[in-house]
Amino acid sequence: SDFQNVVTPSTKLQMACEQAAKHPSLANPILNRVLDADTHIQHEYEGTKYRHGLYQYALLHAAQDALRATQLLPQYSKSWLRAGQILNELWKLKESTQYYEKALEVDPSLADNLKPIMDNIAKRQELLDGARQYGWTQDETIRIALDVVG
């Protein structure tokens, strides 16, 4: 994946440190190369964060439209379904589930299609809660990482 191409494996970093220890005259060039790699990684992360922000912005506008559709067409299951999909993409997982449940209430025939989606939401919520338990406090970083992983 792209992530594997960007992140320097620890074995390569360890080998670079060993070479610097064996050949002190190479220590500065090796350090510069490691720092350049770090700068590249930071640049890649910032680019990903920017693109993710643009996507989130577009989703917020889509969410406004979808939520308005649920008000205008409360008996139309697709309006509830679309709102649930967009909220799911925005990582509003509890709200997304509520909209999916309303879609099921309006059209029970959606149950077979929505069950795997709602199960996936429950797993994503579990991952998010687990990350928070381990001390991750930056939801944006967690969500970007989980979005990249899939």
User: What is the helix/strand order?
Assistant: HHHHHHH
The main β sheet shows up as:
none
Helical element count?
7
Q: How much strand?
A: under 5%
Report the strand count: 0
Low-confidence runs = 1-8
Mean pLDDT across all amino acids: 81
Can you tell me the overall shape?
elongated
Structural class: mainly alpha
Proportion of residues in helical segments: over 70%
Distance between the termini: 12 Å
Q: From the alpha-carbon coordinates, what is the Rg to the nearest angstrom?
A: 22 Å
Q: What does this protein structure show overall?
A:
It is a single chain. With 150 residues, the chain is mainly α. The protein contains 7 helices and no strands. It has helices at 2-6, 10-22, 27-72, 77-89, 93-106, 111-133, 139-149. α4 packs antiparallel against α5 (93-106) and α6 packs across α7 (139-149). The longest helix has 46 residues, at 27-72. It is elongated. It starts with a helix and ends with a helix.
Secondary structure elements and their pairing?
Elements: H1 2-6, H2 10-22, H3 27-72, H4 77-89, H5 93-106, H6 111-133, H7 139-149
Helix pairs in contact: 2-3, 3-4, 4-5, 5-6, 6-7
Q: Tags for this entry?
A:
150 residues; mainly alpha; 83% helix
In short:
With 150 residues, the protein is mainly α. It contains 7 helices and no strands. Helix 3 packs antiparallel against helix 4, helix 4 runs antiparallel to helix 5 and helix 6 packs across helix 7.
